[in-house]
Amino acid sequence: MSSNLHPMLNVAIKAARAAGAIINRAALDVESVRISQKQINDFVTEVDHASEKIIIETLLTAYPGHGILAEESGKEYGAKDSEFVWIIDPLDGTTNFIHGFPVYCISIALAVKGKVEQAVVYDPTRNDLFTATKGRGAYLNERRIRVSKRTQLKDCLISTGFPFRPGDNFKSYLNMMADVMQRTAGLRRPGAAALDLAYLAAGFTDGFFETGLSIWDVAAGSLLVTEAGGLVGNFTGEADFLEQRECLAGSPRIYGQLVPILGKYSKFASAGDKAAVRQAAAADAPEAGNTPEAEGAADAAESVAPQADAAKGEDAPF
User: Residue 80 in 3-state DSSP?
Assistant: First the structure.
């Protein structure tokens, strides 16, 4: 730990490294790790719980008056009315971890009066430590990082996460991916949103989008991005996104080009944009025979095709 860092950030780093040691030990024999399922395709392991426990103990030992918001235990620990709240994801990328796929991380953020001011994202497999303090920049292993300088979407690598929970709109996500893929150099799905945002901050990727995310998935990563010179918001470009379950991030110019592409898929999109997206999804649905329902959906899709085309728009001229 560095004496130049904010003392609260130093404590978060200590907590992240302690959790990383637990995760790395468990990764040596991942097949023996006990796994349970919160819902379909949403897993939690004894390692998640052990990681979260050591993080909370480390933070509250240093700051017993602070609040805690953690993925597995919620607000069970810490002060209930503090202006200082630690937001913790003890193992982001659990599905990767239980398969031995080495893309996962620990995410710790400190929010003060609702604004994220300290952030740590730690990748224990690579010993990569991403840190940020509001107003002081973002760092990877004590080296200052910045978002990429690419200005054209066609040259960019974009990361995302696929829907995997019951009720997720998979067809809409396929349309989103199609809209992005045809305009970019590539789309990636690593499987850990906090690490996706950290990689964006470091300039390894140029943009990121995903729906269904919780505050602990994005709190630390969002500060890394903004302190590295990037922008973060929801799909329509609004900055108040932490608890809206949709996240769009990028370097300023690429962010500006992604908003008109993805904005129509936002739950905050206009009624016209939402209708166009629904009709496009109906038009792209797998063949269901010549049923009246299928024919009606096709007719409806055809009638709104001009509106859907208009909604897509062109890349913003940045």
Answer: coil
